[in-house]
Amino acid sequence: MSRFHFLRSALGAGLGLAAACMSLPAFASTPVTVTFAANSVWAQEIGNLTHSDSSLDYTVAVTAGKTLQLNLLTPNPNVHFKVKDQSHGKLVLDTLTTGESTWSTPNATATTYAIRVYIEPAAIQSGDTAKYALQIGQYGAQDMQPPTTAVTFEGNKPWTEQDGTLASGATAHNFTVAIAAGMTVKVNLVSSNPGLHFKVNDQTHDKKLVDTSTTGANTWSESVAAATTYMIQVYVDPAAMPSGQKVPFALQVGQYASGETQPAKPAGATTAAPPAAATSM
Fold first, then answer.
1. What is the distance between the alpha carbons of residues 92 and 242, in angstroms, rounded to a whole number?
2. Which CA distances in Å does 98 have to 24, 82, 118, 122, 256?
3. H or E segment to which residue 233 belongs
4. Measuring CA to CA, which residue among 142, 90, 89, 136 is closest to residue 117?
5. Global pTM value
6. What is the DSSP secondary structure assignment for residue 101, as one 8-state letter?
7. What is d(CA 262, CA 255) in angstroms, rounded to the nearest whole number?
8. Mean predicted confidence (pLDDT) in 136-150
9. Which residues of 191-220 are buried (b: 16+ CB within 10 A; e: fewer)?
10. What does the alpha-carbon distance between residue 206 and residue 208 come to, in Å, rounded to a whole number?
Protein backbone atom coordinates (compact mmCIF):
# COMPACT_ATOMS: atom_id res chain seq x y z
CA MET A 1 0.00 0.00 0.00
CA SER A 2 1.36 3.37 -0.85
CA ARG A 3 1.48 5.89 1.96
CA PHE A 4 1.49 9.67 1.83
CA HIS A 5 3.66 11.56 4.25
CA PHE A 6 3.42 15.30 4.85
CA LEU A 7 5.98 17.36 6.69
CA ARG A 8 4.42 19.48 9.42
CA SER A 9 6.01 21.30 12.29
CA ALA A 10 5.27 19.75 15.67
CA LEU A 11 3.75 22.99 16.88
CA GLY A 12 1.49 23.41 13.86
CA ALA A 13 0.25 19.82 14.04
CA GLY A 14 -0.33 20.06 17.77
CA LEU A 15 -2.30 23.28 17.50
CA GLY A 16 -4.33 21.93 14.56
CA LEU A 17 -5.23 18.73 16.40
CA ALA A 18 -6.12 20.64 19.54
CA ALA A 19 -8.40 22.91 17.53
CA ALA A 20 -10.03 19.89 15.93
CA CYS A 21 -10.61 18.35 19.35
CA MET A 22 -12.36 21.49 20.60
CA SER A 23 -14.58 21.78 17.52
CA LEU A 24 -15.34 18.08 17.08
CA PRO A 25 -19.07 17.38 17.38
CA ALA A 26 -20.13 14.18 19.10
CA PHE A 27 -19.92 11.09 16.92
CA ALA A 28 -23.25 9.60 15.93
CA SER A 29 -24.93 7.36 18.49
CA THR A 30 -25.76 4.75 15.82
CA PRO A 31 -22.74 4.53 13.51
CA VAL A 32 -22.22 1.77 10.94
CA THR A 33 -20.32 -1.16 12.49
CA VAL A 34 -17.55 -2.31 10.16
CA THR A 35 -17.25 -6.09 9.76
CA PHE A 36 -14.83 -8.22 7.77
CA ALA A 37 -15.67 -11.11 5.47
CA ALA A 38 -14.20 -14.50 6.34
CA ASN A 39 -10.48 -14.76 5.51
CA SER A 40 -10.29 -11.08 4.54
CA VAL A 41 -8.38 -8.32 6.29
CA TRP A 42 -10.14 -5.57 4.33
CA ALA A 43 -13.62 -4.08 4.31
CA GLN A 44 -14.98 -1.23 2.21
CA GLU A 45 -17.76 1.24 2.97
CA ILE A 46 -19.20 3.40 0.19
CA GLY A 47 -21.13 6.57 0.98
CA ASN A 48 -22.49 9.89 -0.26
CA LEU A 49 -22.29 13.25 1.49
CA THR A 50 -24.51 16.25 0.86
CA HIS A 51 -24.94 19.76 2.20
CA SER A 52 -27.58 18.60 4.67
CA ASP A 53 -26.06 15.17 5.43
CA SER A 54 -22.41 16.15 5.60
CA SER A 55 -20.97 13.25 7.63
CA LEU A 56 -21.23 9.50 8.13
CA ASP A 57 -19.86 7.59 11.11
CA TYR A 58 -18.34 4.12 11.45
CA THR A 59 -16.89 2.04 14.26
CA VAL A 60 -14.35 -0.75 13.98
CA ALA A 61 -12.96 -3.01 16.71
CA VAL A 62 -9.29 -3.84 16.17
CA THR A 63 -7.71 -6.88 17.80
CA ALA A 64 -4.56 -6.59 19.92
CA GLY A 65 -1.42 -6.92 17.82
CA LYS A 66 -3.14 -5.76 14.63
CA THR A 67 -2.55 -2.64 12.56
CA LEU A 68 -5.52 -0.49 11.56
CA GLN A 69 -5.28 1.07 8.10
CA LEU A 70 -7.70 3.52 6.50
CA ASN A 71 -7.75 4.60 2.85
CA LEU A 72 -10.17 7.31 1.69
CA LEU A 73 -10.91 7.28 -2.04
CA THR A 74 -12.86 10.21 -3.42
CA PRO A 75 -12.74 12.59 -6.39
CA ASN A 76 -13.76 15.46 -4.06
CA PRO A 77 -10.75 17.06 -2.31
CA ASN A 78 -13.03 18.51 0.36
CA VAL A 79 -13.96 15.10 1.82
CA HIS A 80 -11.94 14.25 4.95
CA PHE A 81 -12.06 11.83 7.87
CA LYS A 82 -11.53 11.98 11.62
CA VAL A 83 -10.53 9.08 13.82
CA LYS A 84 -11.35 8.82 17.52
CA ASP A 85 -9.82 6.18 19.80
CA GLN A 86 -12.94 5.32 21.78
CA SER A 87 -11.12 2.91 24.08
CA HIS A 88 -8.88 5.71 25.33
CA GLY A 89 -11.23 8.64 24.74
CA LYS A 90 -9.08 10.75 22.42
CA LEU A 91 -9.10 12.13 18.90
CA VAL A 92 -6.07 10.79 17.03
CA LEU A 93 -6.48 12.18 13.50
CA ASP A 94 -8.27 14.80 11.44
CA THR A 95 -7.20 14.74 7.79
CA LEU A 96 -8.54 18.25 7.27
CA THR A 97 -5.45 19.24 9.28
CA THR A 98 -2.93 16.67 8.04
CA GLY A 99 -3.94 16.36 4.39
CA GLU A 100 -3.67 12.56 4.45
CA SER A 101 -5.84 10.14 2.48
CA THR A 102 -4.15 7.03 3.91
CA TRP A 103 -3.40 6.44 7.60
CA SER A 104 -2.42 3.50 9.78
CA THR A 105 -1.60 2.78 13.42
CA PRO A 106 -0.44 -0.35 15.29
CA ASN A 107 -2.43 -1.54 18.31
CA ALA A 108 -0.73 -3.19 21.25
CA THR A 109 -4.11 -3.74 22.93
CA ALA A 110 -7.62 -4.29 21.60
CA THR A 111 -9.01 -0.91 20.56
CA THR A 112 -12.29 0.37 19.17
CA TYR A 113 -12.16 3.32 16.79
CA ALA A 114 -14.86 5.72 15.63
CA ILE A 115 -14.34 7.08 12.12
CA ARG A 116 -16.20 10.07 10.71
CA VAL A 117 -16.10 10.78 6.97
CA TYR A 118 -17.25 14.35 6.44
CA ILE A 119 -17.32 17.47 4.33
CA GLU A 120 -17.73 21.00 5.62
CA PRO A 121 -21.27 22.11 4.63
CA ALA A 122 -19.83 25.35 3.23
CA ALA A 123 -17.71 23.29 0.82
CA ILE A 124 -20.66 21.65 -0.96
CA GLN A 125 -23.65 23.30 -2.58
CA SER A 126 -27.19 22.26 -1.88
CA GLY A 127 -28.18 19.51 -4.32
CA ASP A 128 -24.60 18.32 -4.92
CA THR A 129 -23.25 14.93 -3.79
CA ALA A 130 -19.72 14.00 -2.70
CA LYS A 131 -19.08 10.28 -3.21
CA TYR A 132 -16.39 8.28 -1.44
CA ALA A 133 -15.14 4.80 -0.59
CA LEU A 134 -13.58 4.16 2.81
CA GLN A 135 -11.32 1.12 2.92
CA ILE A 136 -10.69 -0.32 6.39
CA GLY A 137 -7.99 -2.89 7.02
CA GLN A 138 -6.80 -4.67 10.13
CA TYR A 139 -3.85 -7.00 9.79
CA GLY A 140 -0.94 -8.50 11.67
CA ALA A 141 2.39 -9.89 10.54
CA GLN A 142 0.84 -13.33 9.94
CA ASP A 143 -1.91 -11.86 7.76
CA MET A 144 0.67 -10.33 5.45
CA GLN A 145 2.31 -13.68 4.67
CA PRO A 146 1.36 -14.83 1.15
CA PRO A 147 -0.64 -18.06 0.94
CA THR A 148 1.32 -21.12 -0.19
CA THR A 149 0.19 -23.89 -2.55
CA ALA A 150 2.07 -27.17 -3.08
CA VAL A 151 2.49 -28.02 -6.77
CA THR A 152 2.19 -31.70 -7.77
CA PHE A 153 2.27 -33.55 -11.08
CA GLU A 154 -0.23 -36.11 -12.37
CA GLY A 155 1.14 -39.42 -13.55
CA ASN A 156 3.05 -39.27 -16.86
CA LYS A 157 2.29 -35.57 -17.24
CA PRO A 158 5.38 -33.33 -17.34
CA TRP A 159 3.42 -30.09 -16.90
CA THR A 160 1.05 -28.75 -14.28
CA GLU A 161 -0.78 -25.45 -14.24
CA GLN A 162 -1.80 -23.40 -11.21
CA ASP A 163 -4.42 -20.69 -11.82
CA GLY A 164 -4.73 -17.84 -9.36
CA THR A 165 -5.66 -14.21 -8.83
CA LEU A 166 -3.81 -11.32 -7.20
CA ALA A 167 -5.59 -8.26 -5.83
CA SER A 168 -4.97 -5.19 -3.71
CA GLY A 169 -4.28 -6.47 -0.21
CA ALA A 170 -3.24 -9.89 -1.59
CA THR A 171 -0.43 -9.10 -4.01
CA ALA A 172 1.60 -12.33 -3.81
CA HIS A 173 1.10 -16.09 -3.86
CA ASN A 174 3.74 -18.73 -3.12
CA PHE A 175 4.05 -22.16 -4.75
CA THR A 176 6.37 -24.99 -3.71
CA VAL A 177 7.47 -27.79 -6.00
CA ALA A 178 9.83 -30.74 -5.40
CA ILE A 179 12.00 -31.73 -8.39
CA ALA A 180 14.01 -34.97 -8.52
CA ALA A 181 17.72 -35.16 -9.33
CA GLY A 182 18.58 -35.32 -13.05
CA MET A 183 15.48 -33.39 -14.09
CA THR A 184 15.03 -29.93 -15.57
CA VAL A 185 12.48 -27.59 -14.03
CA LYS A 186 10.82 -24.94 -16.17
CA VAL A 187 8.49 -22.14 -15.05
CA ASN A 188 6.22 -20.00 -17.25
CA LEU A 189 4.03 -17.15 -15.99
CA VAL A 190 1.04 -16.30 -18.16
CA SER A 191 -0.82 -13.05 -17.47
CA SER A 192 -2.28 -10.13 -19.40
CA ASN A 193 -0.76 -7.75 -16.82
CA PRO A 194 2.91 -6.90 -17.48
CA GLY A 195 3.30 -5.89 -13.83
CA LEU A 196 3.14 -9.51 -12.64
CA HIS A 197 6.47 -11.24 -12.01
CA PHE A 198 7.82 -14.31 -10.25
CA LYS A 199 10.76 -15.12 -8.00
CA VAL A 200 12.35 -18.54 -7.54
CA ASN A 201 14.23 -19.63 -4.42
CA ASP A 202 16.05 -22.93 -3.95
CA GLN A 203 14.70 -23.82 -0.50
CA THR A 204 16.93 -26.88 -0.14
CA HIS A 205 20.11 -24.82 -0.46
CA ASP A 206 18.66 -21.48 0.74
CA LYS A 207 19.56 -19.72 -2.50
CA LYS A 208 17.82 -17.02 -4.53
CA LEU A 209 17.81 -17.98 -8.19
CA VAL A 210 15.82 -15.50 -10.28
CA ASP A 211 13.47 -12.50 -10.12
CA THR A 212 11.77 -11.83 -13.44
CA SER A 213 11.18 -8.17 -12.57
CA THR A 214 14.94 -7.88 -13.15
CA THR A 215 15.35 -10.26 -16.09
CA GLY A 216 12.28 -9.01 -17.95
CA ALA A 217 11.36 -12.58 -18.94
CA ASN A 218 8.23 -14.54 -18.07
CA THR A 219 9.99 -17.90 -18.21
CA TRP A 220 12.90 -19.63 -16.43
CA SER A 221 14.48 -23.08 -16.29
CA GLU A 222 17.29 -24.94 -14.50
CA SER A 223 18.85 -28.40 -14.58
CA VAL A 224 18.59 -30.08 -11.17
CA ALA A 225 21.73 -31.97 -10.09
CA ALA A 226 20.34 -33.04 -6.70
CA ALA A 227 16.74 -33.34 -5.50
CA THR A 228 15.55 -29.81 -4.73
CA THR A 229 12.45 -28.06 -3.44
CA TYR A 230 11.75 -24.72 -5.06
CA MET A 231 9.65 -21.80 -3.81
CA ILE A 232 8.05 -19.83 -6.64
CA GLN A 233 6.40 -16.55 -5.70
CA VAL A 234 4.06 -14.83 -8.16
CA TYR A 235 3.75 -11.19 -7.18
CA VAL A 236 2.92 -7.63 -8.20
CA ASP A 237 4.13 -4.36 -6.73
CA PRO A 238 1.36 -3.31 -4.27
CA ALA A 239 1.74 0.32 -5.40
CA ALA A 240 0.82 -0.76 -8.94
CA MET A 241 -2.38 -2.52 -7.87
CA PRO A 242 -5.34 -0.09 -7.79
CA SER A 243 -7.95 -0.73 -5.16
CA GLY A 244 -10.60 -3.15 -6.34
CA GLN A 245 -8.58 -4.51 -9.27
CA LYS A 246 -8.04 -8.26 -9.62
CA VAL A 247 -5.44 -9.80 -11.93
CA PRO A 248 -5.72 -13.49 -12.90
CA PHE A 249 -2.65 -15.50 -13.83
CA ALA A 250 -1.55 -19.01 -14.75
CA LEU A 251 1.69 -20.48 -13.43
CA GLN A 252 2.92 -23.36 -15.56
CA VAL A 253 5.56 -25.65 -14.01
CA GLY A 254 7.23 -28.40 -16.02
CA GLN A 255 9.74 -31.14 -15.20
CA TYR A 256 11.47 -33.42 -17.68
CA ALA A 257 14.70 -35.43 -17.87
CA SER A 258 17.71 -33.20 -18.46
CA GLY A 259 19.01 -33.57 -22.00
CA GLU A 260 15.65 -34.59 -23.41
CA THR A 261 13.56 -32.45 -25.70
CA GLN A 262 11.26 -30.17 -23.79
CA PRO A 263 7.73 -31.63 -23.86
CA ALA A 264 4.89 -29.65 -25.34
CA LYS A 265 3.52 -26.91 -23.13
CA PRO A 266 0.09 -27.19 -21.50
CA ALA A 267 -2.87 -26.81 -23.81
CA GLY A 268 -3.20 -23.14 -22.90
CA ALA A 269 -3.56 -20.95 -19.90
CA THR A 270 -7.09 -20.29 -18.74
CA THR A 271 -6.46 -16.71 -17.67
CA ALA A 272 -8.60 -14.00 -19.17
CA ALA A 273 -8.15 -10.27 -19.36
CA PRO A 274 -8.28 -8.68 -15.91
CA PRO A 275 -11.70 -7.38 -14.88
CA ALA A 276 -12.22 -3.67 -14.54
CA ALA A 277 -11.51 -2.13 -11.18
CA ALA A 278 -14.46 -2.28 -8.80
CA THR A 279 -16.54 0.85 -8.94
CA SER A 280 -16.23 2.67 -5.64
CA MET A 281 -17.30 6.21 -6.57
1. 27
2. 15, 10, 15, 20, 58
3. strand 228-236
4. 136
5. 0.53
6. S
7. 9
8. 82
9. bebeebbbbbbeeeeeeeebebeeeeeeeb
10. 7
